[in-house]
Amino acid sequence: MVKDSNRPRRVAELIKRELAAIIPRELDDHFAHKITLTGAEVSPDLSSARIYFSLLAGSAEAVPAAAALNHAAAFLRRALGKRVGLRRGAPELRFVFDESLERGDHMDRLIERALTEDRGHKGD
């Protein structure tokens, strides 16, 4: 039997989409409406998933938000299992703060500063 190598990627997208709908509606936590899911990775055997998120408030609340999401992971897994038709049920969920957006913003600021300094030196 040939395994579908795209299946983990498709399942990851499905999980991300469904959790994005579940979290603000089902979680009674002040982080629930500040969270944006930015990505998901599912293991090849579909037993575990890593869910990446960002916050409107930035990284200042990343640790407590990740703790709150991971504390609610079993509840979210059950809610997800009711919504998606996976043969073995929903995978174990682990939430991770996505630092890539902030790193990108930092790089943009560094580039802008370098360009500004370069323009200043050309005027000398």
Automatic annotation (TrEMBL):
Protein name: Ribosome-binding factor A
Gene Ontology molecular functions: ribosomal small subunit binding
Stretches assigned to coiled coil: none
Main location: cytoplasm
Role: One of several proteins that assist in the late maturation steps of the functional core of the 30S ribosomal subunit. Associates with free 30S ribosomal subunits (but not with 30S subunits that are part of 70S ribosomes or polysomes). Required for efficient processing of 16S rRNA. May interact with the 5'-terminal helix region of 16S rRNA.
Localization (cell): Cytoplasm
UniProt record, GO biological process: maturation of SSU-rRNA
InterPro entries to which the protein is assigned, alphabetical: KH_dom-like_a/b, RbfA, RbfA_dom_sf
UniProt record similarity statement: Belongs to the RbfA family.
HAMAP family per the UniProt record, alphabetical: RbfA
UniProt keyword terms in alphabetical order: Cytoplasm, Ribosome biogenesis
Pfam families per UniProt: RBFA
GO CC term (a single one): cytosol
Subunit structure: Monomer. Binds 30S ribosomal subunits, but not 50S ribosomal subunits or 70S ribosomes.
